[in-house]
Design a protein that fits this description.
Layout lengths: L21 H6 L4 H22 L4 H10 L28 H6 L16 E8 L2 H12 L5 E6 L4 E9 L2 H13 L6 E3 L4
Keywords: Membrane, Transmembrane, Transmembrane helix
GO molecular function, one term: peptidoglycan binding
Organism: Pseudidiomarina terrestris
Amino acid sequence: MDYANRKQPPKRKPGQTRRGGKAAAAQRKVPWAIVLLAVLLVAALVGGLRFIAGGKDAGDANNSEVTQQPVTETPASSTGPVAAPMPKKPEERWQYIEELENLEVEVDVPERELGPPKLMQCGSFRKRADAERLRAAIALQGLESEIYPSNNNTWYRVVLGPYETKRDAEAERHKLQRASIHGCQIWNWNL
């Protein structure tokens, strides 16, 4: 569509609308049926909410205040009605509570079979000085390690242990990892 060359719409007279002027506006009727239906729906909604809430109308509330009188207890010496004493607290009829309090449970825990002793190797070096440096860092963590030469004194292994269980070895390995000593391996070695 060419907006530059299009025709201008005809100018309207004051008070005239696009749909035919004042006469068309006067001919529009208000849909009274829809307005009446909307008012009825709102009234039904309000009534339903009051019914659900259990509320009373304002007129009923005023009447109930007038008819209700506060109930006061009368002393036992007066001739008026006497309030019944409170019923006794019912006794528990359950016996399992007492049985469970005195019950002891016995559990058979099988003995754990211990495998071969575990050793943890934290390093293997060609120079003994490097192995001594790692051993000193481990000693600063409160753990004791040994240096074992292997291959005719060409390699030096830094080893911790022996440990009875792998759990003990894992605990010390985590302690070394917190101190930034990584690379320790747990093996089923027997020296």
